[in-house]
Automatic annotation (TrEMBL):
Domain Amidohydrolase-related, residue spans: 5-273
Gene3D superfamilies the record matches: Metal-dependent hydrolases (3.20.20.140)
PANTHER family, sorted: AMIDOHYDROLASE, AMIDOHYDROLASE-RELATED DOMAIN-CONTAINING PROTEIN
Pfam families registered for this protein in UniProt: Amidohydro_2
Family: Belongs to the metallo-dependent hydrolases superfamily.
Source superkingdom: Bacteria
Name recorded for this polypeptide: Amidohydrolase
Alphabetical list of InterPro entries matching this protein: Amidohydro-rel, Metal_Hydrolase, Metallo-dep_Lactonases
Length: 274
């Protein structure tokens, strides 16, 4: 494997005034992680570029991530956060879009009790600004959101959407998850990340037990499936960076060289425009 683009990576500072998660109760995750830690965790893995994804619902974190990215050519882009329901969202989005490495935004939908929040009228102003400025939406959703996300994708066909962590189902994914994901895959604007699956498995579960789920994702999304590590959240499953990389190799052993190159880098380059 070479030319990898990690489409889902986190860094954070627990001493930052904007830090809210992870908390001390989150164990191994409760420490600061910077780009040097990322490189050390990767070892000799051939990762050409990375995409940093927000972890806090705070404008200051997005500004900080962009400063990191602008100082390191290895970082291909940043998926930031904006309060999309704020009257100031269009102006904030316009200002962020002027920064070269801002590639998308991620509302923390999994933490919002209202499953249909993304369809609200006061959110539409922010979404329209995203479309205007050529940004993408990272959909941090759970299976309860899949029907809503289909409605949203139909309402905003010009907005590229990527489903983070395959919507975080409990493996192997129930019938409702399968039906919802298959329906979303029929929409050409919707992509999916092969990431985050290990942290949804039961403690001690065999990672290769994810094979049926991964096979479905490959079948549904094909060239619109992109790989991410979700590091360091991955550590909560007891895996290192190389473990998930090796698991991915095993789970996709049947892919052609071209298909694997697309999964591990080409799809992320196209989706995020990097």
């Amino acid at each position: 494997m070479s030319g990898i683009v990690d489409a889902h990576l986190h860094v954070w500072r627990i001493d930052a005034p904007f830090h809210g998660w992870p908390a001390p109760s989150d164990g191994v995750l409760y420490r600061s992680y910077n780009l040097a830690d990322v490189r050390a965790a990767m070892g000799d893995a051939p990762v050409d570029r990375v995409v940093l994804v927000q972890a806090q619902t705070d404008d200051r974190e997005t500004d900080w991530l962009l400063e990191l990215a602008e100082g390191d050519p290895w970082v291909a882009g940043v998926v930031g956060w904006v309060a999309l329901d704020s009257p100031d969202a269009p102006a904030r989005i316009a200002a962020l879009a002027a920064r070269r490495k801002l590639v998308g935004l991620r509302p923390m939908l999994q933490a919002i009790g209202d499953t249909d929040w993304l369809l609200r009228g006061d959110v539409a102003r922010g979404v329209a600004a995203m479309v205007e400025h050529g940004l993408r939406l990272d959909a941090l959703v759970q299976p309860r959101h899949l029907g809503m996300l289909a409605t949203f994708a139909d309402r905003w066909p010009g907005l590229p959407i990527v489903i983070d962590h395959a919507a975080k189902p409990a493996p192997p994914g129930d019938a409702d998850w399968r039906k919802g994901m298959a329906a979303l895959a029929e929409r050409p604007s919707v992509w999916c990340k092969l990431s985050g699956l290990r942290t949804e498995q039961a403690t001690g579960a065999d990672p290769l037990a994810l094979a049926p789920m991964v096979a479905r994702l490959v079948d549904w999304f094909g060239e619109r499936l992109l790989w991410g590590s979700d590091w360091p959240v991955l550590s909560a499953a007891g895996d290192g960076y190389g473990d998930w990389l090796a698991t991915t190799q095993g789970l996709t052993a049947g892919l052609s060289d071209d298909a694997r190159a697309r999964l591990m880098g080409g799809a992320a380059r196209e989706f995020y425009g990097v």
